[in-house]
Specification:
Number of domains: 1
Shape: globular
Low-confidence stretches: none
CATH topology: Na+/H+ antiporter like fold
Strand content: under 5%
Structural class: mainly alpha
Order of helices and strands: HHHHHHHHHHHHHH
Distance between the termini: 16 Å
Number of helices: 14
Helix content: over 70%
Radius of gyration: 19 Å
Number of strands: 0
Length: 334
């Protein structure tokens, strides 16, 4: 009961924050067929600024961090990315009307990480007073890349087996393409600059001050995309919608559980545990779709993008974030 009350309280609080209110506004704008549009170039720049800010902060924190504290959470993130794809695709492809390649593609996006959800989670934790390690942002690619590589690998193995082709699969090329994606490149660049250089002035004078304003633009765009994707989603099997409703929360519970193990073994902070749950609950909306599109070209974008952006992202942000914050406070007695 305490967790439920905490979730409802946090959900009502989030309705008054730029995170959820702008997401809902974006969906309303799209629903009334408004001509309001956020140019793609503005959206890409917005994502760049937000991820660079997170990367810089993570890098500055990592300068003083013990690398052994990072290893176990990073290993758990790899495990989560792989398990979500393997289990998710195994469930989806057994459902009526779901093609195997679409199951692999969809599970791949749900195993990968959403930059928007991740950014929203950091703000929500700060507002809730839940401190977490600054280097948590560096965990992003440890979950994102294994998930996308696993999905593409499984899909290609399936297609090769189906066609009788015994040729090899370019895992190296898949990994390279994932790391070259905009979100991962920006985060890692920010982390590297934060570790090597002294970026405090540009961080405080530019990236930190603009963070909340750019976040509102990102959430508005994600809301508009979410509503637009819903129309495409229902052109394919409705099982995708059901999966997208529950997968973020179940994946987040896996992340919370493994984060709690890291808390016991290496002292991972309560806020870090919640952030790992939010990472696990998120589903890729920036780097994942183009990677999946090129890695599994025969998969139907209406299925995997509609599931992820149309339902998965709103569920992860609107329900997942307040739920895992409430769980964190209840479990750790905060």
């Amino acid at each position: 009961m305490e967790v439920v009350l905490g979730f409802l309280t946090k959900f009502l609080e989030m309705l008054q924050t730029p995170t959820l209110s702008f997401l809902i506004l974006g969906m309303i704008v799209a629903a009334i067929k408004s001509e309001l549009r956020i140019p793609d170039s503005i959206y890409q720049f917005t994502v760049f600024v937000l991820l660079m800010r997170i990367g810089l902060k993570a890098g500055m924190e990592m300068r003083n961090a013990d690398i052994t504290d990072i290893l176990l959470p990073a290993l758990f993130c790899v495990l989560i990315g792989v398990v979500v794809v393997v289990v998710g695709s195994a469930i989806l492809k057994r459902l009526p009307g779901v093609r195997a390649v679409d199951a692999f593609a969809t599970a791949g996006l749900f195993g990968a990480v959403s930059s928007g959800t991740f950014i929203a989670g950091t703000v929500a934790l700060e507002d809730a007073g839940l401190a977490f390690e600054g280097w948590v942002a560096a965990l992003y690619p440890f979950m994102d890349t294994p998930a996308l590589v696993t999905a593409i690998l499984l899909a290609n193995m399936y297609l090769k087996k189906k066609s009788g082709d015994q040729g090899g699969i370019g895992i190296g090329a898949i990994t390279k393409e994932t790391f070259q994606g905009m979100a991962v490149t920006t985060l890692l660049a920010g982390v590297a600059i934060g570790v090597i250089a002294q970026p405090q002035m540009v961080f405080e004078g530019f990236y930190d001050q603009l963070f909340m304003g750019f976040l509102s633009v990102l959430m508005l765009t994600l809301g508009m995309d979410a509503y637009s994707s819903l129309k495409d989603l229902f052109k394919v099997a409705h099982w995708y919608a059901l999966y997208a409703l529950f997968a973020p929360l179940l994946n987040g519970l896996l992340g919370f559980g493994l984060g709690y193990v890291a808390h016991i073994l290496v002292g991972f902070s309560p806020g870090g545990v919640v952030m790992m749950a939010i990472l696990a609950a998120s589903n890729s909306d920036v780097s994942g779709p183009p990677t999946i599109r090129s890695g599994i070209p025969s998969a139907n974008p209406s299925a995997y993008i509609g599931s992820s952006t149309g339902i998965g992202t709103p569920v992860a942000i609107g329900i997942g974030i307040p739920l895992f914050i409430a769980m964190g406070k209840a479990v750790f007695g905060l």
